Amino acid sequence: MGSADGNSNERPIHHVEISSFHLDRTVVTNRQYAEFLRENPAWRKDTISREMADGDYLNLWDGIQYPEELGDHSVINVSWFAAAAYANWKGQRLPSEAEWEYAAGGPRHCKWSLAKEFDPSLYAFNYREDPIGFRVASYPANGYGLFEMSGGVWEWTQDFYEVDYYVRAADKDPVNLIETNWKALRGGSCLFDDPNYLRCAVRGSNKPNACHEDYGFRCAL
Questions:
Q1: Which are the contacts of 213, defined by CB distance < 8 A and separation ≥ 6?
Q2: What is the CATH number of the domain that holds 50?
Q3: Is residue 12, in this structure, part of any structural domain at all?
Q4: Tally of CB atoms within 10 A around 175
Q5: Distance CA 76, CA 220 (A)
Q6: Rounded to an integer, what distance in angstroms lies between the CA atom of residue 28 and that of residue 138?
Q7: 76 lies in which domain range?
Q8: What element of type H or E holds 85?
Q9: 115, 149, 166, 174: which has the highest count of C-beta atoms within 10 A?
Q10: Is residue 2 part of a domain?
Q11: Whose CA is closest to 109, among 65, 144, 158?
């Protein structure tokens, strides 16, 4: 886990043992998230508090309706709190950083989710015409059958974020539960034009109520 030639928060490289787990093949779509909102009014745009999601929450939606043509696109502008609530509603949870990185690299532990060298045609990458998410499963799956693990959207994880967490992380099933003001994100973004930010080892972070046009999530079990 980690990288010696990446950002400081990816160091040191360290060995981690991960127990068996499941990870959803794709990130959650607008269509799927709409089902959650229909059954959970507290998480709708007009009822959610700013502590749970900032003012950009679901900013493409009208009430609980998403643009019709975006049903199979990734839901975006969702906070960590909203992502965790959705996962709990499904009887699942968000993945840990360690689980996410293990799954992203596939059985060969690739630098990017599909290969050890970067081919821009294989990833949701460098979008300029459509900054409103992407149609899921539009690009090849990795060796574990997972789509858009590199690029696409930043994906929320369970972990609280600390720059130097790897120095003291557990060597089996690590999850950072020490509370900070930040949660960890993984995967990069379809809006990036630098492939280095799509590497499986890259770590992002933001406040748990933050909502951005390239923030989404997938669930684990």
A1: 56, 59, 76, 77, 131, 132, 133, 191
A2: 3.90.1580.10
A3: no
A4: 18
A5: 18
A6: 14
A7: 22-221
A8: helix 80-89
A9: 149
A10: no
A11: 144
pLDDT band (50, 70, 90) for residue 131: low
Tell me, yes or no, whether 4 lies in a domain.
no
Q: Is the pLDDT of residue 130 over 90?
A: no
Q: How far is CA 192 from CA 14, 127, 151, 201, in A?
A: 27, 7, 8, 16
Closest CA to 200 of 191, 187, 217, 213: 187
Q: How many CA atoms lie within 13 A of 167 on its CB side?
A: 6
Please tell me the pTM assigned to this model: 0.97
DSSP state for residue 68 in the 8-state scheme? G
Q: What sign has the CA pseudo-torsion 122, 138, 101, 196? A: positive
Quote the percentage of the chain above a pLDDT of 90.
Answer: 95
- How many residues are present in the chain? 221
Residue 166 has pLDDT above 80, yes or no: yes
Asked if residue 6 belongs to a domain, the reply is: no
Structural domains of the chain, count: 1
Neighbours of 196 (CB within 10 A): 15
